[in-house]
Amino acid sequence: MSRVLIIGCGGVASVVIRKCCQLPEVFSEICIASRTESKCTALKNSLEGKTKTVITTAQVNADHVDEVTALINQYKPDLVMNIALPYQDLTIMDACLACGVNYMDTANYEPEDTEDPAWRAVYEKRCKEKGFSAYFDYSWQWAYKEKFEQAGLTALLGCGFDPGVTQAYCAYAKKHYFDTIDTIDILDCNGGDHGYPFATNFNPEVNLREVSAPGSYWENGHWVEIEPMAIKREYDFDKIGQKDMYLLHHEEIESLAAAYPEAKRIRFFMTFGQSYLTHMKCLENVGMLSTVPAMFEGKEIVPIKFLKALLPDPASLGPRTHGKTNIGCIITGKKDGIEKTYYIYNICDHQECYKEVESQAISYTTGVPAMCGALMLLNGQWNQKGVHTVEEFNPDPFLEALDQYGLPKTESFDPVLVD
Ligand code: NDP
User: Same structural domain for residues 229 and 136?
Assistant: First the structure.
C-alpha cells in the first residue's frame, strides 16, 4: 500500500502509470501531475473502472521548486517519480529534500538553456577535465549525495532501460558470472518501423540533442571523444537481423566506469537507418536542431522546440509501429582466471506493447523498469540512502520483476563480439 506522485504525463509516463495500475496492491494511490493537467485527466478517465488504484491529478510546473514542494506537502507521497524531462531533475530533487521523500527518475540532468552562462562555465570546465562534451552528466545529481544521505533518503537515478536495465544487467553479470569485467558493449537496437519518413521514439528535443552530439567511450581510465556517428558497426541481432549501429555517448558509461574501475573499455551503440541519419543531418545543417532562440516575425522561437511541434508525437506512434527492439550488454571478463563472454538482452515487440498499454516499445522499455524501480524502493529491497544509479543495487529482485512484468531477459554465453 503506497502513495506515489508521478510527475509528467507524456509517452513514458503513460506506460509507468498504466503499469502501476496493474499492481494496485502496491500502487494503491497515485497522483499524476504535469504541466498540462488535461493530459493527466484524460489518462485518469481512460483508466477509470479498469484499476483499483485510486488516481488523482494535479497541475504543476516542475521547473519551480516551490510548486513541487507545495504539491508534495499536500499529497504526502511515499515516493516521487520524475517522468517529466531531464531539465526538471534538480528542482524535483530539491523539493524531495525539502519534504523528506524518496526520489527517482529515468534520465540524468541536463539544462534546458545550454546558453545560460552560469551553467556553461561549469560545463566548459567539465569538458576539459573529463574529456566528453555531452550536455548531460551525473555531476549535478551526484552533488546531492551527502544531502540525501543526511536526510536518510534515497534518490534512484536513471531507472529506464538505458540507462537503467543495462546497468542492472552489468551488476547481474558481475554478481553471478565474473570476478573482473574487461569490456562492456551496450547494444540498443530498434528494429521497429512506424512508417513516417522521420520521427523520434521519445521526446524529440532530448533525443535529437543526444544523437547529434559527438560520440565518446571509456578506454583505459579516460574518455575518448569522436565526431558524431564516426564509428559504425554491423550486428546481427536476435529476432531482428543485421543492422547498422553507431557509437554514441551515453550516460550510463559514466556510472559504469565508476562502478567497475577494472573495465578497460565501455561503449554504447545504437542502431539507425540511413533515412533517419539523412533527415537528422539535413535538419542539423539548416539549424533546426539549435537550442539558441532565433527571431521569427518579431517573435523569439527555439528551432528545436519548433521542430518538436512539427514532428509526430512519440506517444502517437504506438498503433503504427511494427517490429521489435533488442537491447542488452555484451560483457567480457574473467572468472576463476578463465576468460568469459556473456550477452544479456531483452527483446520487446512494438505491437504487443501497444496491445497491453497503448504504447510503442521505446516508451514501454523505459516505463516498465521505472515501475519496477519504484517497486524496489517501495518494498524496501533497494534501501541504500544517498544518490545512486541502478548498478549499485542488488540486481536480482529487479531482474525478477522485469521478467514478471513484461521485459524478460535472454542470456547467451557464446555471443559474437563487436570489434
Ligand atoms: P514527453 O515529452 O513525451 O513527456 C514529457 C512530460 O513531461 C510531458 O507530460 C510534459 O508536459 C511534462 N513536462 C515537461 N516539462 C514540465 C514541467 N516543467 N513541469 C511539469 N511537467 C513537465 O517525454 P517522454 O515521455 O518521451 O520522456 C520522459 C523522460 O524519459 C525523459 O526524461 C527522457 O529523457 C526519458 N527517457 C529515458 C529512457 C531510458 O531508457 N532511460 C528512454 C527514453 C526516454 P506537457 O504535456 O505540458 O509538455
Answer: no
